[in-house]
Amino acid sequence: MVAASLTGMVWTGTGWAEPAWVQIEARPTLDQAQERARDWSTILPAVSGFAMSTGWYAIALGPYADEAEADSQLRVLRGERMIPPDSYVSNGSRFREQFWPTGAAPAPVAEPAAPVAVEPAPVESPAAEAPAAETPAPVETLAESRRLEAALSAATRMEIQSALQWQGFYSSTIDGAFGRGTRASIGAWQQANGYEATGVLASAQQAQLLGAVAAERAALGLTAIDEPEAGIAIELPMGLIEFDHYDAPFVHYRAKDGSGVTVLLISQQGDQNSLFGLYDAMQTLEIVPMVGERKRERASFLLTGQNERIHSYTQVGLSGGLIKGFTLVYPADQADRMARVLEAMKASFRPKGKKALDATLGKPLAVERSALMAGLDQRHPEFARSGFFIAADGAVLTAAAGLQACGRITVEDHLADLAYADEALGLAVLRPQKPLAPAAVAAFQPAEPRPGGELAVAGFSYPEALSAPVLSFGTLSDVSGLSGEASRARLAVRTLAGDAGGPVLDTTGAVVGMLLPAEATPDKLLPEDLAQALRSFDIVARLTENGYAPTASEPSGSIAAEDIAALAQDMTVRVACWK
């Protein structure tokens, strides 16, 4: 129907009154413009191309009888998303030679009606009359630029501010008011483009600015998207991405034509706990590199990440029981270009209605450590082990082996610093970068344990599968190590690698040691239930020497196994090493 209405347009009125066009884009070179005109001609009829007075090349639809008719077609085509959203009506005043269709005669341009010609009386001339010299195009004065600027509509003024913002020269409110900030931005743009920084755009400069931004936006395919299933409105670079699938709480957009750009729209029902769970879970994803800003507030969070391969940005907010946001991921070498896309997405993002993505469209998010987020690769640590709280501010004791080589250490997904390490003894103290509030702090047994006594090791035996520590029960075999080390004890208990660094508890719930990582013995086959622990006496002595104040346990009788399990749950934490 749109095509028929375009092809059926004819000029009306007397003569060539006031023709108008719908300009859909502009290109800086003739070759580019001819290629784009050819592409548009396969989609829409009545495509024309003109050289412009600005030095650029316009691609337009028309001509139409007048601006009203052109505006009507503009609205129809925009509504059908058949032309870029920044297309506009042009009166053709800047159009010059026509280059498309190939071989077309120049399109008529409205001019004042010519007076009736009266043939003058012949005048004899001794010589043939010389051809008139060409009149150079007048140069627009600053006063004329000010006068033309004053006549601009509010919409055009806002468009100029948006264009300046797009190119990184303007960062204030888009309000159409040309105050000091806008003037300074115009001056900076003029200077960057080789013009005198007057703070007032000449007509040609305005056309250059708007044309360049229109061309860039068209190349990116920035399109206003209304995602009804997620209840989100946002501008997305559809020239770089395409819809892939729903997988609650995400709407996935994959890279298009090898662009390397991906987008997630985030939409789910939930409360603050759900929001915080999503915050923790997303930090484990490959698309969120570890280096970057992390900010979590009561009803929102921000995640950025950068590495040598990709950059990513995630913003999420909670309002009215709905969690909504987006993630943009793009190649690191496109940071400058994609910064403009990100600003457009941030400025246009808007939650809509009271609907969140239906979990039946995909798998609902599980924030437990054991569950992967559907369709997304999870980042895994180099190794994960156990530790336990030794102070009310969240200081954690763990095994020292391998921690010096970690690029990043986390305690229960919170960043931590390696505060102290004794490689010879095998212990280390971690301090979370933000203070934690432990439910329980280890109390060390001051009395000498006796061989044969029952004990339990608390640790994350399965750190990638279970979000809680496991208790492994056994006995104390000896109060010295395999080579007779006085600081170690031998245990008869089956443990796994993830248990290393965890507390060894006696039947009263007091800590009698810390489990050490198994030593590599390729030429020896040791019993499966053999383990070694650092004795509490040596732990307490070394911590005290270095300014820590370990808590001593109070004398008490044995407690039930379920009470030991509850105590272990409160004090034992997961420690992860990331490269």
TrEMBL record:
Q: Provide the alphabetized UniProt keywords.
A: Hydrolase, Protease
Name the SUPFAM superfamilies on file.
Answer: PGBD-like (SSF47090), Trypsin-like serine proteases (SSF50494)
Q: Does the keyword Hydrolase apply?
A: yes
The answer, when asked if Membrane is one of the entry's keywords, is: no
Name all Peptidoglycan binding-like domain ranges.
Answer: 157-201
One of this protein's GO BP terms? Answer: proteolysis
- Name recorded for this polypeptide: Serine protease
Q: Which terms does the record give in the GO molecular function aspect?
A: peptidase activity
- Pfam families assigned to the protein according to its UniProt record, in alphabetical order: PG_binding_1, Trypsin_2
Tell me the first and last residues of the signal peptide. Answer: none
Q: Where is this region: Disordered?
A: 120-140
Instruction: Locate the transmembrane regions by residue number.
Output: none
